[in-house]
Structure formats: C-alpha cells, structure tokens
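Example record for the data management plan.
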Amino acid sequence: MPDEPPDEREQGRGLSHHILPASGTMVGICATVIGLVKILEERIGPSHVDEYAGLAALLFLASALASYLSMRRTTGIGLSARLERVADLCFVLGLVSLSLIAVLFAYETI
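Corresponding structural encoding:
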C-alpha cells in the first residue's frame, strides 16, 4: 500500500547515500587545501594548516568508509545503523574541524 510508512531498513539507508559522495568531495577539498597551502608557504612561511587539513581528510575518509560499509551491509539492521551513525559523526566532526581550520588560518593563528 502506498500509504504505509517506510520500513526501518529504508529509513536508515537514506543518510548513507548522501554521506558517501559528500565525504568523497570533502576529501578532495582537503587535498586541494593542502596543495594550495604548500604553494603559499613559500610566501607566508611555514604553517600547520596542511597537517590539520590532512587530519580532517582522514575524518572524511572514515566517514566515507563507514557510509559505504553501511550501505553494503544487507543483513542486520543494527550494525548498518551503527555504521551510519559513525559515518554521520565523522562527517560532522570533519566539517567542524575544516571550518575551524579555515577561521584560524584566516586570522593567521595557525
């Protein structure tokens, strides 16, 4: 019936389908930031922005992997839901860390 609510499995899978491509994109953005900072270090001097962006990229990589594994897990809703929560948490932590890096770099703190 079309009026029936989606089952628990369908509700839990929606987020992973959004996290995976976004995480991959954010890993690419972190790599771009690292490359640009390496070029700028000749002018502005050494900074730790590239190192912190590398750590943020690892958070996005963990998010992408957990999201992928969550989608691939066809049996057991519990493990899939936990992996999706891990993916979500890593993604949000990566966004917060990349935003902090940008603000601190703008104010020449790091």
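Summary line stored alongside the record: The chain has a mean pLDDT of 89.
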